[in-house]
């Protein structure tokens, strides 16, 4: 049985604005067995230790060459490029962004 791996470039994390880890390529092993849930504590466990291994590469070609050298079946997920809409800094403060003007309610 051949070992399956996935090669991809991770997306930028939503928690921070940096793009540090999104430039490198990541090789991850596909799960070989389903995870099981402990009935007493509810913990999730697995006998497949390959899921813990993450290999980072500077380029997609390096990751593919490594997978071929090791004899892995690999799948490459191409990243979706982020489309940046060009706009000016003043657009952040534009009044036209508000769909309905702010109305003051008076309790009479």
Automatic annotation (TrEMBL):
Subcellular location: Membrane
GO cellular component, one term: membrane
Any one of the GO BP annotations: electron transport chain
UniProt cross-references to Pfam families, sorted A to Z: NDUS4 (PF04800)
Main location: membrane
This protein's UniProt keywords: Electron transport, Membrane, Respiratory chain, Transit peptide, Transport
Protein name per the record: ETC complex I subunit conserved region
InterPro entries reported for this sequence: NADH_UbQ_FeS_4_mit-like, NDUFS4-like_sf
Stretch list, region Disordered: 1-20
Cleaved signal peptide residues: none
Taxonomic lineage of the native organism: Bacteria, Pseudomonadati, Pseudomonadota, Alphaproteobacteria, Rhodospirillales
Compositionally biased residues, Basic residues: 1-11
């Amino acid at each position: 049985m051949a070992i399956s791996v996935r090669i991809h470039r991770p997306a930028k994390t939503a928690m921070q604005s940096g793009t540090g880890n999104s430039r490198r390529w990541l090789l991850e092993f596909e799960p070989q067995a389903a995870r099981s849930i402990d009935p007493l504590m509810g913990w999730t466990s697995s006998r497949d230790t390959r899921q813990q291994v993450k290999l980072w590469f500077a380029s997609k070609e390096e990751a593919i060459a490594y997978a071929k050298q090791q004899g892995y079946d690999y799948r490459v997920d191409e990243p979706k490029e982020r489309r940046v809409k060009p706009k000016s800094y003043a657009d952040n403060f534009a009044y036209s962004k508000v769909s309905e003007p702010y109305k003051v309610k008076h309790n009479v």
